[in-house]
Amino acid sequence: MNAQSLHALIIDRHFGELSPEATELLAVHLAQNPEAQAEANRILGALAITEQTVLEHPELVQMGGGEKKNAPASPIVKKGWFTPAVLAKAAAIVVLLGASGATGFFAGRTQPLSPPTPTVASVNVVPQTPRSDSPWASYRLAPDPDSGELRAVRVRN
Prior knowledge:
By secondary structure, the chain is mostly helical. It has a domain at 3-60. Helix content is 48%, strand content 8%. It has helices at 3-14, 20-32, 34-56, 84-110; strands spanning 138-143, 150-155. A two-stranded antiparallel sheet has the order 1-2. A hairpin with a 6-residue loop joins strand 1 (138-143) and strand 2 (150-155). 3% of the residues are buried. Residues 112-157 are annotated as: Disordered.
């Protein structure tokens, strides 16, 4: 049993808040564990000193007979996502999206429907002639007369 659970059980037993079964199990645990018994005695001693101090000096503790603080006029409301600040941000986002969409729409409407006349780029086609001084070999596909399959054949320059 960890120290925090032991403290809670001892305090609950002292104030009579434990069930009879739990009280019996705590007594068995304290009887079998001398360290836990010593800790229980220390806690009970602190509780006794506290009770004695409160009885001797009741002015130190307000037991409900003292002045009560006035409750707030408005009930406490749990804040969620539905607050004015969040709604203002959402409205600003909607306005920006609407403005950008409208701008794009009207900009697109002012453009002509058909594209301007296309211009053709002039391309000079140079016939490929194999270079005789190239270090790379040239190949072409040619049918094999024996099998009828295509084979890569080296072209001589």
